[in-house]
Amino acid sequence: MTTIASAPGKVLLTGGYLVLEQQFSGLVVGTSARFYTVIRPQTDLTAGTITVNSPQFEQALWNYKAIVTQHKLQFDSITESRNKFVETCLKYTLQVILERSNPSLVQQKLSHGIDITIVGDNDFYSQRAQLESKQLENTAEALNSLDPFCKTHATLSTVHKTGLGSSAALTTSLVAALLLHFQVVSNQFTDPEKKLIHNVAQFVHCLAQGKVGSGFDVSSAVWGSHQYKRFRPDILTPIMDENVDQKLLSSSVDADNLNWDNKVVPFQLPPGFDLMLADIDAGSHTPTLVGKVLHWKKTKPEESTLLWTQLGQFNLLVEQHFRELSRLYTQDSTDYNQTIERCSQLKSSDWHQQVQGKVAEEMVSLVNAFNKVRSLLQKMTELSQVPVEPQEQTRLLDACTDIPGVAMAGVPGAGGYDAIFCIVLSNRSKHLVRKVWESWKELSVGPLLSHADSNGVTSVSLASVPGLSDIL
Ligand SMILES: Nc1ncnc2c1ncn2[C@@H]1O[C@H](COP(=O)(O)OP(=O)(O)O)[C@@H](O)[C@H]1O
Ligand SMILES: C[C@@](O)(CCOP(=O)(O)OP(=O)(O)O)CC(=O)O
Questions:
Q1: Is residue 72 helix, strand or coil?
Q2: Which of 11, 12, 450 to mutate to test the pocket of ligand 2 (most atoms within 8 A of CB)?
């Protein structure tokens, strides 16, 4: 039986940096771009052989040996080339599986080896090189013409990532596929099953990256779009050890372990709103940005605390206005749709003067709250001297915000020169935004094709994913 699990990428709309602390939250939106892990039993491999390949990359083939005796696992990497995330996923997820399932079932499923294929939608990786080699412009139309899961002509260490969170989506889809393949979870992915997938994926992701981060990226790979409040780091810090005791690991990641105090409040963009993303070629190194911002925060506790408090309030206001708009839709969808239609034809700065009614008022409040968020991120940039929303990005975002039907434009997550997002109200606005991106000279702006998709981790069939069977 072939097993496939899939997990989405993410965009942190608000809450960058603040979400590292439990008292603040982040608003994260899932993307239509997803990772897929396909597990197929083999008939001709020696017992315990696990082959993993990522066909979009060069030199992306890894072999492992997993020997199970009773509840014990002996796990070795056979190939010289390593993939920290894949290896960590396999080793510790198999240990969790051994604590929760019959060892003879695990042995039987590994008896002739298994083959694992991992792919991510094209949006996870920059397609600039691919487009250049085909002499195509970096436009949405050209991206649309590429094959699904196309080759990047790069290795995993040289590829340019677009910031959708490849390691979190990969980890989550691989953990979920393994738990499903070894029958620890059902293909329904019920709530407690998702909790287990989440907890295992957070552990693996933290161990592989060598630190306990906020975890919003793994959380959105599991739960899709939501308001995220982090877990207390000390649920993981004591087990951040390659030789962690298997029983301790399994009990720590248990769905019923109440020490996991992360909070997930489901969220969806209101009807008529959609997300657009662009990757900026300049790029920033997120861990460096985070290190510098946190260093500044420590040296300037008073000014940073004030900024964090204000930013926290306006981040929450943005979310509240989104939620109120969704509520207004359910109350009177005709009035709501008419207002959105009207707003989609006007610049957001004109909504206040030219559109009336409750929905319009809410739209204006949303824009005002988000403008305040941006001005506070600009203040953070100035005070910390870290380019969270640098001036080049400010100019680009202002140009996007000046387009009719664009409700907001901002830097996602840690900000920097990595990416931008826009929230737009119509296909016409999308088209106009793409035109601005194509003609923008100061920064190289590459469109992504993803839109907002609030679904989290799922089990899927091969036939339901266009292009997937072609790369197996
Ligand atoms: N398609 C893939 N197949 C296998 N491993 C992958 C794939 N995509 C990403 N990874 C893993 O994730 C790592 C990248 O993680 P990271 O630098 O944290 O990027 P991101 O910010 O996108 O999560 C890679 O080095 C690799 O181990
Ligand atoms: C600063 C942060 O709060 C958010 C960073 O979010 P990004 O989405 O920018 O992350 P990358 O995918 O690693 O580039 C750090 C964190 O929460 O871990």
A1: strand
A2: 12
> Tens digit of pLDDT for each residue in 372-430?
999 999 999 999 999 999 999 999 999 999 999 999 999 999 999 999 999 999 999 99
CB contact set of 221 (below 8 Å; sequence gap of 6+): 7, 8, 9, 10, 35, 165, 168, 169, 171, 172, 173, 201, 456, 457
Two structure tokens written together for 423: 């929230």
- Nearest Cα residue to atom 18 of ligand 1: 167
Give 118's contacts (C-beta < 8 A, 6+ positions apart): 35, 36, 37, 38, 52, 53, 54, 86, 170, 173, 174
**29-65 confidence digits (pLDDT tens):** 999 999 999 999 999 889 999 999 999 999 999 999 9
Half-sphere CA count of 412, side-chain side, radius 13 A? 29
Handedness of CA 317, 322, 325, 327 (dihedral sign): negative
CA of 16 to the centre of ligand 2 (A): 6
Q: Which ligand lies nearest the alpha carbon of 217?
A: 2
ipTM of the complex: 0.98
* Closest atom of ligand 1 relative to the 164 alpha carbon: 22
Q: Ligand 2 centre from 214 Cα, in Å? A: 8
Q: Are 51 and 113 in contact (CB under 8 A)?
A: yes
Within 10 angstroms of residue 284's Cβ, the number of other Cβ atoms is: 21
Atom of ligand 2 nearest to the CA of 17: 3
Centre of ligand 2 to C-alpha 180, Å, is 29
Please report which helix (H) or strand (E) contains residue 73, including its range.
strand 72-77
